[in-house]
Amino acid sequence: MAKIQSSNCSSNQVSELDTLLMAARQQYRSDCQQTLLLAEQALRIAQQQHDAAALAQATLLLGQAHYILSGAETALPILRKALTQAKAIAAHRLAAESLIGIACALQSLGQLHAAFLANLDALQAAILDNALTLYAEAYLGMGNLYVQHNEHSKALHYLALASEWADLSADQDLRCKTRLHLSATLLSLREFSLAYDVLQQAKTFLILPLRRDWQAEIFNYLGLIHVEQGESSLALDCLQMACQINAEAGFVWGQTVNLLGLGKLSFRLDQPQAALSYLQQALALVDEFQDLYLLQQIHYQLYLIYEAQGDAVRAMMHHIAYHDHFMKLQRQKEYSQFRANDKRRLQNVEMKLKLLSSELEVNQLKQQRHQEVDRLRELESAVYHDGLTGVYNRRALDERLPELLRLTQESQGNLLAIMIDFDHFKQINDHFSHHIGDVVLRTACDVLSKLSRDNDMLARYGGEEFVLIVHHIDIAIASHIAERMRQKIEQFNWADLQTGLCVSISLGCAVWQYGESAEQLLARADKALYAAKHGGRNCVRFAEVDHA
Q1: What is this structure's pTM?
Q2: Which of 101, 248, 428, 542 is the most buried (most CB within 10 A)?
Q3: Which residues contact 143 (CB under 8 A, 6 or more apart)?
Q4: How would you classify residue 338: left for phi > 0, otherwise alpha for psi between -120 and 50, otherwise beta?
Q5: What is the pLDDT of residues 439-466, one digit of tens each?
């Protein structure tokens, strides 16, 4: 009986240990203080049970929590201990996680070369466990180190690789994280349009309220984009929102960055007192964690403001501080230059990862096919579809219609172009608002799309004018489709959208003639549309055959 009780007790403790470790991981970053408490409990039980794997996990979580709560110096020896424990039991994934934590801590302490080596070791350990998420994390670390070296093009390479591995891992949180880092580097390279697009992607992966710090980061980057585009009001709103989120959540580093951004913007807007207030708040906060780069930037901005005000003493004081921090950063950079043999090691690791990536893509091809289709659709949607209505845009029409005509000619088939125009659309905008006008176009295009086939092409030609290309169909049936479209738009219950709203369309149709160009076909369809509008609107007219 005693043995049975002992066995039950041991089983309960193991179950409790697993529960504690799982809870500690879930709480990490959202509540690091809770992670710390849970990890300490797990550590005690693991020691009692002589469970080496659980001990390594608990030590790692303890180090990760201390890094957030107490800083790199406190966390580093704990993370190194976790690494030793993981290596002793050949727990490659835990070793890779420990190395990534060590790399972050070393980078915070300005030991960039040591951080580079730790990330490289993390990649090699992750390969042994085929840990996709850790490839992404290690590449993130590589990219951020190159950012710190001001080598943004190289940083972009590694951050793009991090995003690719994050996508392969299907980890939503990691997808958001990699895109945030990628957008920051794109901003440094002044690729504002691309950075904006990547931030919009990051938004779709953002897990709230868990990642409020990342939400603040997105607002911060959007603010910087608006600053560069001269949209001061939008920039101010974004930066203030970021600062508010960080202040409420107690994210001191993020709040400092936001205050620096607000100080720069206020100075640019000729509001020196507001700028000084923001920068002095930032200076007070940065003293808590002594980030050399932020200190350099804050002192430089204060120097500019006091110099502009003619306060030579304060200007000189902040210029000296700026120069001191600049020299410290330079010494760190010189000390931390990545060596040629380390880069060769990285190249060898990358070759292995490329092979793994290819193998993984082959093995996951069927499972990922729908994801790839979605990506292609998104890409096509961005390039070839109208942002308002979702139908094809003018670019798509111009590129695809000549090809459709060539195929029609080769198959000796037929093709019809139907030019569609919304009657008195300006009056709809003027009387009901442009918003209602947009709703009308979206709704009508949905109606028209349902009346066309999958292989037909409905495109926005410009403004409220659209084109439907119908091919491989009897012309009589196509004529019926045009009349059916006119009726459906006229009979649609538009009053549900807005009281008193009525909508109709005029349609001009042109049957393609052998040898006719796309421009000639559309010109004849447009001429038929002109006839429909002058014939009282809300009707269908066919173009005459051009015998010229």
Answers
A1: 0.54
A2: 101
A3: 155, 156, 157, 158, 159, 162, 181, 185
A4: beta
A5: 999 999 999 999 888 888 999 999 999 9
